[in-house]
Amino acid sequence: MQLTPTLGTENQSPYQVESRREIISLLRGLSDSNQLISMLINGGAEVFITSILHIDEAANLVIVDSAPGQLANQRIAEANRISFEGLLDKIGIQFSANKVSISSFENRPSLQFPIPATLIRLQRREYYRINTPLSTPIKANFPVEVDGRIETLKLTLVDISCGGIAVLDEKKLLDVTVGTTYDHCKVELPTIGLVDVSLQVRNSQELVLLNGKSNRRVGCQFINLSNAVLASVQRYIMKLERERNSKLTGIR
């Protein structure tokens, strides 16, 4: 089964899991920990947030919470392929279904589909961190005090994870004292939208570029991230991972 439009049917990814026992264990882990999962249709044009309600191993079914609204569920049921993306113990999990049907579980609306034959479990790290594209730089807006007034400092993202971001502070205007917190920072994630986050400085590093100029890399941790914003960050990370897999496998 093809995991996503960017992954082939064969084991082209080093993170692909094919053991049925392990797949069921991972899905049950998502269910038991009540993790939110992104449900994508139409190639990611529409995204719904759901969770796994039950794994019926005997019937070979995964049962997930329905989307809000009858029309949304109908679009999901009519989709040719549905992709799912989530996090389990800070590890990215991706799988898909060729068909989802509308059902009910414990007297509540739900959706169901066969247990996937394969899934992707991304590399194990405390937080899966991925570099952001250099061709289309993403800006993080920090409100900082300059000469007694608040100004917006626009810094380029270097990488992103569900735990935080790293930015380049070329003019070295940020207070990089560990523990310094910046509230109401704005990050525009392509195809996802603008997210409002609080960022706390965790580390900084002076960089010397090939041209002899210096730059400063600042690592920041998300503080009190809401479930909605976490889901948005997670969707963007998964999007970047799909694009990277596409380049690695040569599929467009």
TrEMBL record:
Residues 123-238 form the PilZ domain. It is found in: Bacterial flagellum basal body. Keywords: Bacterial flagellum, c-di-GMP, Cell projection, Cilium, Flagellum, Nucleotide-binding. Residues 15-121 form the Type III secretion system flagellar brake protein YcgR PilZN domain. Pfam families: PilZ (PF07238), PilZN (PF07317). InterPro entries: PilZ_domain, Split_barrel_FMN-bd, T3SS_YcgR, T3SS_YcgR_PilZN. Its main location: other. Monomer. Interacts with the flagellar basal bodies. Belongs to the YcgR family. Acts as a flagellar brake, regulating swimming and swarming in a bis-(3'-5') cyclic diguanylic acid (c-di-GMP)-dependent manner. Binds 1 c-di-GMP dimer per subunit. Increasing levels of c-di-GMP lead to decreased motility. This is Flagellar brake protein YcgR. The gene is ycgR.
